[in-house]
Amino acid sequence: MNARTVIAGDPSSPVILHVPHASRTIPGEIRSSLTVTDDQLAAELDEITDAHTDVIAQRAARSAGVPPWTLRNDLSRLVIDPERFSDVREELNSVGRGAVYTRTCNGAVLRRDDEDARTALLDNYFHPYAAAMSDLVSDRIAATGRAVIIDVHSYPTLPSAYELHLDGPRPALCIGTDPHHTPQWLAEAAHAAFSPLADIGINTPFSGTYVPLDHYNTDPRALSVMIELRRDQYLTEKGELDDIAAENLGAMLSRLVDAADRGSR
Q: How many other CB atoms are there within 10 angstroms of residue 143's CB atom?
């Protein structure tokens, strides 16, 4: 079972589409360690999976002027969440939603606290994933002078119970930025690319964007911006993909890919 997939882009492209939360796949041996019922697990996956963001990213890559590179997580974030800090820096540790989740969205026990099991998950999945992303970023920097990560996510219309910041707006698009890795031109390019959407927010309801830790706060050649699409922008009320909406969002994302490619030269 593949844990992740790297899709090669054009050798001249610095752009990496990162799709970390689109999968619902959980290996059998990990499913057996989860304490929830099948119905509870299905509900949890419905709430926390960034459904079909891989489809939107694929459409963007296909229509971009210069094909970007893609790193896609092929396992559910219930295995490990590659975007969390794996240490005490992670604020969501307080609600059991750090690199290895121990609680569901509503606070129920997802897996028992077991330090040996947690270490095994980090060693088998988290650290190899981080290394793959770091290697891809380093490769793009070596080839083009910098890497531009576009971190592709979605989020539900209503807040999940575990969210720590519940009072902010939930716009059609949230653009996540980092003070060290998101230059103004990149945030503006994201806003322009998705300007057909009704409302766009910055760092609300989620903030920040993914950068591999060995580049984080130390390497100005590693740039990143997060795209958080509110799910009602492309999913039906039944949670099914609205193909026309996904095609339109893919086109918007491709415009950001093109702008990131141009702007990084």
A: 15
